[in-house]
Design brief:
- The chain is α+β, with helices and mostly antiparallel strands.
- The chain folds into 2 domains: 4-57 and 267-416, no CATH class; 71-252, no CATH class.
- The chain has helices spanning 4-14, 20-58, 71-74, 78-93, 127-130, 158-164, 214-221, 243-250, 259-302, 304-312, 317-361, 382-408, 412-416; strands at residues 65-69, 98-112, 117-125, 140-142, 153-157, 171-182, 185-199, 209-213, 228-233, 254-258.
- Strands 2-3-8-5-7-6 form a 6-stranded mixed β-barrel.
- Strand 2 and strand 3 (117-125) form a beta hairpin.
- It starts with a helix and ends with a helix.
Length: 419
C-alpha cells in the first residue's frame, strides 16, 4: 500500500484508457522534452568542439607562460645579460612543473610588401629550443626553422604573406619602432628581410605573427640581449595559477605572464557564448515542461471521479498530489532520458552525419578554402549531459507541482453529489 501512489501515477501516465487527445498531448510533451534535451546536448558538444579546435590551434604557437624581464634586468648588456638570464632559467627549471625554457625578444613592427603594409608581432626565438616550447615547426607549410639561422630571414603566417603579396624567397621591408638620425632628419629604422618559410594554424595568428632568429632580432631591435623567457609547464590549464609559486624564485628579476593574460579574453568570450546559447536553448526545455502542465491539468480533469473515490477511501491530499507528481515526472523523465541518449549519440556522430549529407547533396558546408576547419568539431562532455538532464528534470518537477496541488484540493462531496 505504501507504493500505491506510484502505481497509480504510472498507470494514469501510460494507460490506454486515456482519451486520445490526452494521450496526444502526453506524447507531445515527451517528444518536446526529448528534442529540447537532445538539441541542447548536441549544441553544447559542438561548441566544446569549436573551443577545443581554437585552443589547439591558437595555443600551438603560444607558450604556456612568459617571464618578462624587469627593466633593471633587461638593461644589462652582453655577457652579463646572458649570465643573468641563464641563472634565472636554471632557477626556474628547478621547479618540476617547468619542463622547458627559452629566451625570446618580441616587438610590434610594420611590414611593407609590394601591395600593402601590415602590422605584426615580431618574435625572436632560440631555434634550437623552440621545438620544446611550441608546435611551430609542426605547422610550417613551407620551409624549416633551421632556415632562420641565416641572417635577416623571417617566417610569416600564411595569411600575412598573402596580404603582403610575398612568397618564400621574396624580400619585404620591416619598419621598426625606432628612429635613425641622419643629416636629413629623423627617419624610422627599416631593413629588408628575406621570407624563408610560412606557417598556418588556421587562426588569427596567421595574420599577426612573424618569427626571426634571436641574433637577427637583437641586431634589428638593438636589444643586446633578451626581453624575457618562454616557459612550457607540465599542465597548460594550471599554468595561470603557477605564478604565485614562482614569485620566490623570480625575486624581482621578472614578471610571470601566463597564456590566460594574452589569450584568456578569447576563451572567456567562448564560455560566455556557450552560457548564452545554453540559456536560450533551455527555453525549448521550458516549453516542453509547460506541456507537462497541460498534460496534468487534463489528467486531473479526467480523473476527478477517481480522485473523489480515493479520498473517500482514505487517501490524503498529499497522496493525491504524489500520484500526479509521479505521473508528470514519469512522462518528463522518459523524455529526458531519451533526449540524453539521442543527444549523446548525435554529438558523437554529428561530424559523420554532416559528411553524409555533404556527399548526398554534393555540397560542402565547411569549405577548407573559406573556413579554418573542414569538419564540424564535436566534443561530448558527460558533465554537460548531467547538467542538462538535471536542469530538465528540475523544470519538470516545478511544472508538475501546481496541477498536483490543484488535484489535492478537489472536494469529494462536490464531485460525488449527483452520483
Amino acid at each position: 500500500m505504501a507504493s500505491y501512489t506510484s502505481f497509480l501515477g504510472l498507470r494514469y501516465g501510460f494507460s490506454r484508457q486515456r482519451s486520445r487527445f490526452t494521450a496526444l498531448v502526453s506524447m507531445a510533451s515527451m517528444l518536446g522534452m526529448m528534442l529540447g534535451v537532445a538539441s541542447l546536448i548536441t549544441v553544447l558538444s559542438v561548441m566544446n568542439g569549436f573551443a577545443g579546435e581554437l585552443r589547439g590551434r591558437i595555443l600551438a604557437l603560444i607558450p604556456h607562460a612568459y617571464v618578462e624581464l624587469l627593466p633593471a634586468q633587461d638593461s644589462k648588456k652582453g655577457e652579463e645579460s646572458a649570465r643573468a638570464t641563464e641563472a634565472l632559467s636554471s632557477d626556474l627549471l628547478a621547479d618540476p612543473r617547468i619542463l622547458a625554457i627559452a629566451p625570446f625578444v618580441r616587438e610590434t613592427v610594420l611590414f611593407s610588401g609590394p601591395y600593402r603594409q601590415q602590422g605584426a608581432v615580431l618574435t625572436g626565438i632560440d631555434i634550437s629550443r623552440q621545438s620544446a616550447l611550441t608546435e611551430l615547426e609542426d605547422f610550417l607549410r613551407v620551409g624549416r626553422l633551421e632556415d632562420l639561422r641565416e641572417d635577416f630571414t623571417v617566417i610569416l603566417g600564411s595569411s600575412m604573406a598573402r596580404m603582403l603579396g610575398v612568397v618564400p624567397g621574396d624580400e619585404l621591408r620591416i619598419v621598426l619602432p625606432q628612429v635613425s638620425v641622419t643629416p636629413l632628419g629623423l627617419f624610422p629604422r627599416s631593413r629588408l628581410l628575406t621570407v624563408v618559410g610560412l606557417f598556418e594554424v588556421g587562426a588569427q595568428q596567421d595574420s599577426m605573427l612573424a618569427y626571426v632568429s634571436l641574433p637577427t632580432a637583437n641586431r634589428l631591435l638593438k636589444t643586446g640581449g633578451t626581453r624575457g623567457l618562454q616557459l612550457r609547464t607540465s599542465d597548460l590549464m594550471t599554468a595561470p595559477t603557477l605564478g604565485a609559486a614562482l614569485d620566490p624564485v623570480l625575486q624581482g628579476r621578472g614578471v610571470y605572464r601566463p597564456w590566460s593574460e594574452t589569450q584568456g579574453s578569447l576563451f572567456r568570450a567562448i564560455r560566455m557564448e556557450k552560457l548564452t546559447v545554453s540559456i536560450l536553448l533551455l527555453g525549448v526545455v521550458l516549453v516542453a515542461a509547460f506541456n507537462v502542465v497541460s498534460t496534468l491539468v487534463m489528467a486531473v480533469t479526467e480523473k476527478r471521479r477517481d480522485i473523489a473515490v480515493l479520498r473517500t477511501m482514505g487517501a490524503t491530499p498529499g497522496d493525491i498530489s504524489l500520484i500526479f507528481l509521479t505521473q508528470g515526472l514519469a512522462l518528463a523523465l522518459l523524455g529526458v532520458m531519451a533526449g540524453a541518449a539521442a543527444g549523446s549519440l548525435l554529438s558523437v556522430y554529428v561530424a559523420d552525419l554532416v559528411d553524409f549529407f555533404e556527399r548526398l547533396f554534393g555540397a560542402r558546408i565547411f569549405d577548407p578554402s573559406v573556413y579554418f576547419i573542414s569538419r564540424l568539431p564535436s566534443e561530448l562532455l558527460w558533465t554537460d549531459v548531467l547538467a542538462v538532464s538535471a536542469a530538465a528534470a528540475m523544470l519538470s518537477v516545478l511544472a508538475a507541482i501546481y496541477p498536483a496541488w490543484r488535484a489535492s484540493r478537489i472536494a469529494p462531496a462536490e464531485v460525488l453529489r449527483y452520483e
